[in-house]
Amino acid sequence: MNYRHSYFILTCLGLGFAFLYIPILSMVVFSFNASKLVTVWDSVNSPTLKWYYALLNNEEILDAAWISLKVALINASGSVILGTLAGFGLARFSQFRGRFTLNAMTTAPLVMPEVITGLSLLLLFVALEQSIGWPAGRGITTMTIGHMTFSMAYVTVIVQSRLATFDTALEEAAMDLGARPLKVFFVITLPIVFPAILSGWLLAFTLSWDDLVISSFTSGPGSSTLPMVVFSKVRLGVSPEINVLATITIAVVTCMIVGVSLWMARTAKLEKAGAA
Amino acid sequence: MQRCGVTGRGLVVVLPYLWLLLFFVVPFVIVLKISFSDVDLAIPPYKPLLEWVGKNSLAIKVNFNNYAFLFTDSLYINAFLNSIKVAFISTVLCLIIGYPVAYGIARAKPSTRNILLLLVVLPFWTSLLLRVYAWIGLLKANGVINNVLIWLGVIHEPLTMLYTPFAMYVGIVYSYLPFLILPLYANLEKMDWQLLEAAEDLGCRPWQAFYKITLPLSRNGILAGSMLVFIPAVGEFVIPALLGGPNALMIGRVLWDEFFSNRAWPVASAVAILLLLLLVPFMMWYQSVQARESAGAR
What we know:
By secondary structure, chain A is mainly alpha-helical.
């Protein structure tokens, strides 16, 4: 197989990646711009860190970030548990009652428009509150439940596809040697799916951290998340502090993704070496 | 795994099963119920469907007014049609931009391939809201694109791009592009490229070989990627709200406004039900494509 690319494909790759990255780079560059006009470069006073300083003193944004962090952490951990169970069930049990329904229920949230999920969750919470008194009002709990419902679908898909690439031989061997099913799960299966669980956790965290629509429907007074605050600011136009926030987000995400990819590449290499 | 008894299996899936049933399926039943009830000036702002009339007769008040309203007011029909149009055009644009990129990545050296994939995934991990926001800065009257074009002398007056349909298309294509590239790449990666070499040896022009071999073989990847763009784009709210301007009629936005601005919960529910009915066939199609794709992988 040869890896030569035609000039056409190379141009398409270049343009495609330029399209993906120019907006991101522009936010990073203009986060150092001194001018309040954001996109008009003030060459006298720039680059400056003054908007970074302003962001770190913005109580509204910091409070919202704290709420988002709490929701995202609980959501990621809860989704990983539910999603791993569902993914394991779907990948390893070829037949059980409700398999079709479970499969459909874990695929649908991936494509369901968020306005529908958000509205339906809110109406559920209102109906529950009317009939059984729980949840009393809406806030962090209801938001977390909403986030977990769609995050766990992503975790399920990741865990399921990771397990599908491993045959059951190892697990069967362990059982033949007398290991109990629970022990097989913790000693054999869990280490196999661990990379999937880790990426699932990170994905669930990010989905929750970024979510605007479902949070807006299911949050209550005093529990505005970071995206909700950003959205209300951005509706009024560009703001230098949002550029700073974007730059910090990009920096954190880049470090995280690169770190995890390197770690996974190493694990994959070890796996290959072990198999050989 | 035969030794896992029925109880063992049941225990594993029962928790996620019940969770999704309660928080994903039951809510739709409630939305359906409320879409048939009357608007009320109360908290919550709808009338109950079941009402005790007198002492021991229960009256069911079902009315189709909300649905009738949606079909008489042209706003809603236009919003539905416009959403489908915008989602469809965006999907086609994503395919035009995304296919060569996915193809290029699939045919790159394995080491370069991983880096390129990482570059596709990276924007997907950074907040959608912030990436849409970036386009406000690029497209507005004194934004980056206008400034560059004026500086180059291409134009003398800034172009109006923000708050137009153009801006909305750019935003949707930009945000959903990774969703199309990834499944398409996963499909193309499994392709047997020797088929192309064979075709060329037999005298096929590269374009012919692409049209006759690569395109048909990547059909499932194209379908899966297109669904991942089309279905959520129909109900998209954030992008039309930020980039589309006040005239951008998208059904997701209409639902949002009915709910948050007009507090018309029954009307919003009826919109949600119709939107769901419209999208369910596509979701089922997507699921069958996925099933075929994973069956083919084995």
